[in-house]
């Protein structure tokens, strides 16, 4: 009964809005142009397949293992030349909230922690912009990087990467 | 075609079903364990409330749990995402006051940060789940009472944000062109309720009160060349006004010092790199802070280093840009507003500030104390960016009006008698959004 009443309440509301506004199409609302709000995927990235590398005649892969938040281990064949965000998406490694900004250096949700020896072997050092985003990450370590900025090389075969706890419980007090 | 069909088509949402379910009551223990929710410190006032559920009936024979989420911003969609993933049978209904979803991602994120809005793709995936329904244009407290939801759902989750501005309570605050940064953001982001905001940019100087990221956002929009802004999804009325703007100087004023600033480094770095714009930070304000750098945690250390460097030793490119710049922004520390001054026509002509010093031992918790000195900054526009507070629902739930939050015990909303009966989940920290609002 309760939900039926709720449904009729809603229906009344929606019906009255039909009468009063004659159903303004969304496009006519006085808002920023809606069509422009569609975000284009990064160039070279199709909707489903996030692999950023061009097709190669022979894909060379190395083993990369991820230690997930629940402590389990997931090993994948990572294509050399791809970044770790794309590899994680390609292999459906299940990490909540991972890669929210889709690799545009606008969030820190692809935060990963490396072993010191692997960290030293990574092909590039973090830029100021990457460090700026990492500063917002939970569980920041000296060997933290953003997955979207780390390109896999042959040297990294056998690397083990830890996925940090992505969230802090606000009930434990402000950080 | 009824409005539900129309909404369904327009929003590209899954078919909206009014699932009426005989619900096994969601065990509070299970819920707590599985429902990891996200939020940022800026979303502290977003509240999650899970009421003692009352069962209702399903059109399908399968029993299911039915959760109402109020608000379709990041907190709402992350809550839905987590619930749908962790509970294979749960059905989630998201209620939204506006006709369109995504809340502050759409109306809070600055238009020149489109990459941050990529998260909309994640939320759209959630919205396309068959067990996730969206009801836009429905306002809690007006179209629906909380009691309706409590009666109809297994659980109710409040993610409706902090809807009210904190105010300064100083003389002149109600003058024209003394605006809340929140409305100003709504104005340039195309929020319907702020489309008519009377913004007058026919002045050389503006003062932004507050040292958070919203303060930097509004200052950046005021100073960014419109040739850049016109490539973004900024609202047309704001773009038009900014094209005619005379604002050349923005003072960003805070009560305390560089070590207590609440903005984050990415936003500050953007300010120092604004085209044709000079960064001005007084050396006196940063004197000595280089000495405590090594004791600070890394994020605070890097932020402080950037403030210090910008004041004392900008690099060559910056020196060159800043020398030739026609606009400037000033980071002003240790000042509290006393009154907004007006000219004989009742227009803003400046703001009077009290000069503060800091008291207390722990750097980040130092308090600002007035020294008795005063100064005036001339300006024609004042933007107040000192934070938000939540609003209570008219449902007799105990509300702490000084803090703007529901009374809660370990994140559970207390019931009418003051007991923590309901299983209340406070949102957990989600870093993505920390710097956005």
Automatic annotation (TrEMBL), chain A:
GO biological process: P450-containing electron transport chain
Short name of any one Pfam family annotated for the protein: Fer2
Gene3D superfamilies, per database record: 3.10.20.30
Cofactor names: [2Fe-2S] cluster
GO CC, one annotated term: mitochondrion
Presence of keyword Electron transport: yes
Highest taxon in the source lineage: Eukaryota
Protein's name in the database: 2Fe-2S ferredoxin-type domain-containing protein
Keywords assigned: 2Fe-2S, Electron transport, Iron, Iron-sulfur, Metal-binding, Mitochondrion, Transport
Residue ranges occupied by any 2Fe-2S ferredoxin-type domain in the UniProt entry: 62-167
Coiled-coil parts of chain: none
Similarity annotation: Belongs to the adrenodoxin/putidaredoxin family.
Gene Ontology molecular function: 2 iron, 2 sulfur cluster binding; electron transfer activity; metal ion binding
Compartment(s): Mitochondrion
From TrEMBL, chain B:
UniProt keyword terms in alphabetical order: Electron transport, FAD, Flavoprotein, Mitochondrion, NADP, Oxidoreductase, Transit peptide, Transport
Gene Ontology MF annotations: oxidoreductase activity
Boundaries of every FAD/NAD(P)-binding domain copy: 66-227
Pathway: Steroid metabolism; cholesterol metabolism
Recorded superkingdom: Eukaryota
UniProt-annotated binding residues for FAD: 75, 96, 104, 140
Record GO cellular component, one term: mitochondrion
Names of required cofactors: FAD
Record's subcellular location: Mitochondrion
Catalytic activity: 2 reduced [adrenodoxin] + NADP(+) + H(+) = 2 oxidized [adrenodoxin] + NADPH
SUPFAM superfamilies assigned to the protein according to its UniProt record, in alphabetical order: Nucleotide-binding domain
Binding site for NADP(+): 211-214, 255-256, 267
Gene3D superfamilies (alphabetical): FAD/NAD(P)-binding domain
Top-level class of the enzyme under EC nomenclature: oxidoreductase
Pfam families: Pyr_redox_2 (PF07992)
EC annotation from Swiss-Prot or TrEMBL: 1.18.1.6
GO biological process: one example: cholesterol metabolic process
Family in the record: Belongs to the ferredoxin--NADP reductase type 1 family.
Designated name of the protein: NADPH:adrenodoxin oxidoreductase, mitochondrial
Lineage: Eukaryota, Metazoa, Spiralia, Lophotrochozoa, Mollusca
